[in-house]
Description:
about 170 residues, 2 domains, three-stranded parallel β-sheet
Amino acid sequence: MFGAGGAIGTFAIGLAKLAGAIVTAIDSKDKLPMLTQTCADFVIDYEEQDFTKSDQKYDVIFDVVGKSPYKKSLACLNSKGRYILANVGFTPMIRGVWTSKTTDKIVISAMAQEGRAELTEISELLEAGKIHCVIDRTLALEEIPEAHRYIDSGQRKGNTVVAMQAD
């Protein structure tokens, strides 16, 4: 999982582990201890190690931040492997459709389609302690500009919560 240390990545690690997956989490060095605590089996500092240069093959590569090298990542997939791209632009979407039609790899770049049932299921998993929510910071409603700056800085580890005050 490339960009595993943010909100989507930490939840995805929990869901993958619940499904029995062996998870390799890739992010910056300062996020690796947190990723180990979220049950990632292996962690890689992307600044020190290029995961595409090892002999490791994966069934799924999930790029949460849209920064993994496309062609090299495809080469790291097993036959019928899936390359899931979040935060993807138009050109990579078209490239993904072409790759899926012309190779034995499947590229997925659709928008999430969660609804009430999926959110209820996630809520139940959280309440049962089967997955965990990593909360980095909690800020007040009036601190939303600061929350956005912090999230955009790439330093966030897990989720940033904005606390709403009832009148």
